Every structure is written in C-alpha cells, then in structure tokens.
Amino acid sequence: MGxxxxxxxxxxxxTQTFGWGADQAAxxxxxxxxxEAGGNFFDTSNxxxxxxxxxxxxxxxxxxxxxxxxxxxxxxxxxAGSGPNDAGLSRKHILDQIDRSLRRLQTDYxxxxxxxxxxxxxxxxxxxxxxxxxxxxxxxxxIGASNYTPAQLMRAIMLSExxxxxxxxxxxxxxxxxxxxxxxxxxxxxxEYGIGVIAWxxxxxxxxxxxxxxxxxxxxxxxxxRGDRWDDLPEQRETERTWQIIDALVEIAEQRGKTxxxxxxxxxxxxxxxxxxxxxxxxPQQLEQNLGSVGWSLAPDEVARLDQASAIPLPSPYxxxxxxxxPRI
Length: 329
Known about the structure:
It is a single chain. With 329 residues, the chain is α/β, with parallel strands linked by helices. The chain has one domain (12-324): Alpha-Beta Barrel (TIM Barrel). It has helices at residues 24-36, 52-62, 91-105, 124-136, 150-163, 186-193, 223-226, 234-237, 240-256, 260-269, 284-291, 300-309, 318-324; strands spanning 12-14, 41-43, 71-76, 110-115, 140-146, 168-172, 196-199, 276-279. Strand 2 (41-43), helix 2 and strand 3 form a beta-alpha-beta unit. The longest helix has 17 residues, at 240-256.
C-alpha cells in the first residue's frame, strides 16, 4: 500500500452491504469466500448501516485465527448520533469513535483508520494530533483520508512532516470510468508521495455492471430502480458519455468473455498509482463475478477505447498545462 510495507490484495472488499443487503450468514459466507480466493483487505465505516457493517464484520472476525493476516479498514466523520459532537474530525469525536469501532469489530486495533471526508469545521492540526495519539496507543496501524482535495491532502502531508506525526499513507477517492477527475491531481500527488489509492465506487453504483442499457428502463431490483442513492440516479449519471462508456464496456466484455463489471474493475485496477479498487457484493454470486476482474489485463487498444469513451474535456489550467507539457514516466 503506497510506500508502506503493508501488503494488501488486489481487490478490497467493501462491506457497506453488511446489515443492508447481506445478513450475518451471507456476510460470513462472502468474507470466507474472499479470503479463500486470496483476499485480505476489508473496508467498512462506523456509520454504515448504523454500525451494523462493523458489527457483522466483527462477529466474523472474532472466530478467525488469522487476524494478523487480515487488513481491516474503517472510517470516521459522518454523524454517528444526534449530539453536537457526534460528527466531524474533532479530537473528541475521533477518540470516541475509534473505541466504538474497535468494540463493534471485536479487535484490538484497525489496520487503516480513514477520515471519511474533509472537515472544514475542525482545524487540521487537531485532527492529525488526535490521530497521532490513537496510533501511539496501538489502536491504529496506518491512517488515511477519503474525499480530500489535492490541496487538502498536500497540507495534511506537510503538517505531518513538520510535526513528526503519522501521515496519511492511503487515499480513498471516488474513481471509475464515469469519474475520472481523480486523475488530474490526486493520482499524480499520491504517486509522488507514495500514498496508496483504494478507489471507491469503481462500478459507479452499478452503472458500469451492464445492467443499464440505452432506451431501457432500469431493472426494478437495481439500485437505480429502487432509488437507493441520489448520486446514482439517472439525473446524476445518464448522459451520452455514460452510454458511450457502457456501449464500449459491453462490447469489450463480450469479445473477451468477461462481464462489463469485470472489465470496469480491471480498468481501474491497472491505472498507475491504484492499490486496489473497493467492490461490494450482496450475494456470493456477485462476489464471485467481481473476483473475476483479477488475473488478466486489458489489451492496450481496449484500454485506449475505454479511455477515449470516458474522456472528460479538461478545464483550465489543466488543458493549458497538458498542451505544453508532458508528464514524467
């Protein structure tokens, strides 16, 4: 993972479905299936399904003898209660929530503790100093950030280096064929400073699985059909560019004997600087399909086609810089 000595699997199993789409039995079956396939990296959060994701993962975790071989990541920021100090990245909230996460996960430590979002209401120094304390206390092995801008991430790195605090060794940004602005600054910054990258929503909430097609209503049992998340609904995702990407995905998948989801995950996995895409699953069948995204590579012409279909016109100053410079290899 980045410049660290920590070794993680090519895919990270996101457990947001635990307690929502998967009960304890299904979650345990899928977690076992993932480990048996060679996976060791699990991602959750203190607020997923009001803590049920951590609780279910913890029940599975306590019965295993290989805890030291597993990499458990969780997060903090979003409201975990109704009180005025039940959200954000204040010292109080971080110290409170790490203990609650450890109790739910039934473990003495988490391998990766991530700030779920930038907190504009808390001084960054306060957040980093609190993280220094939880690392020194042995409750956390590595720290990371999610949903930070390049400037915010760079400032955190500089403050950590200045004060001798642990620095963010991992970034969890949204990154997929539909969301490529991560490539403008965040991925180059992470490569420059040896920060691991675990991409969330690499299938864009199901839009890149092939279940949505031009001029066809979404399946009623799909996330879009159910209206689960506003940022995955048609008014947020449905554009000509989206359909161009899906058309290319479906055609390449058919030619390669893969599924569109496997192609989309493979595209993210092999982008420079990416440590592991985070995928979710509600059933063992979905998990098995996602596991089929590793062990092979897209051909250069297939990558070029997907890059072209998903390309975003660069705004200024990125377009100006691209016109007159070439990135380092």
